[in-house]
Amino acid sequence: MAKLILVRHGQTNWSKEKRVQGALDIPLNEEGKIEAQELSGELAKFKIGALYSSPVACSLSTAGEIAAPHKLKVKKALEFSELNHGVWQGLLLKDVKKRYKKQYNNWKTSPTSLSPPQGESLKDACDRAISAVHKITDKRKGENICIVSHDIILSIIKCYCKNMDLEKIWKFTPEKAWWEALDF
Predict the structure, then answer these.
(1) How far, CA to CA in Å, does 18 sit from each of 25, 89, 106, 141?
(2) Element (H, E) at 6
(3) Domain containing 170 — which CATH number?
(4) Catalytic residues
(5) What pLDDT digit, counting tens, does each position of 102-130 carry?
(6) Regions of the chain with pLDDT less than 50
(7) How many domains does the chain have?
(8) Disulfide check for 93: which of 16, 18, 39, 60 has CB 3.0–4.6 Å away?
(9) pTM of the model
(10) Tell me, what's the pLDDT at 1?
C-alpha cells in the first residue's frame, strides 16, 4: 500500500483576489512562497519516495520547496493540472456567480452533470488524475508519494481514496497551503 501526501499549492495573487485560476499558469505571491516553505518544514518528517506536481508555476514552486530537504527531483505531471474552467478562467468568482448564475449554481449542486462553459468535465479530470495515481502507485508500491496540485484535482483524489461519489466533491475542497496523507 502506498501513502499519498496530497498538497495544495500556496497562495497566488489570483487566489487572494478570489479569481478563477483554473488551468492558467499563475505564480505564487510572497505569502504563497512563505507557505510553501512552511509546508516543506511540515512534510520534512515524512520519508517521501517521489514527488509529482502540476506543471504550473504555483504548484512547481511549492513542490520545489518540499523536494529540497528530501533531495528529490520534482516530476511534472500534466495529469495533475487543475480542471480547465473554460470561460470562467480569469474572472472574479463573484462575477462568475453573477454572469453565469444558473450554470454555476447547477455545477455546485450537481458537479458531474455539467462543466464550466467551454471547460473540462469533472469526469474527464477525474479519469486523468486517478489514472495517473494508479500508474504512480503501481510503480512505487509501499512508498510515500507526494502530489502537489490544485483544489479540484486534490478533491477528486480524496473522494476516490475515501470511496465517495464525485457529487460530494465540494465537501473535500482544500484551502491553500493544505496537506493530508492518505492510504491508497
Answers:
(1) 15, 11, 20, 38
(2) strand 3-8
(3) 3.40.50.1240
(4) 9, 82
(5) 999 999 999 999 999 999 999 999 999 99
(6) none
(7) 1
(8) 18
(9) 0.97
(10) 77
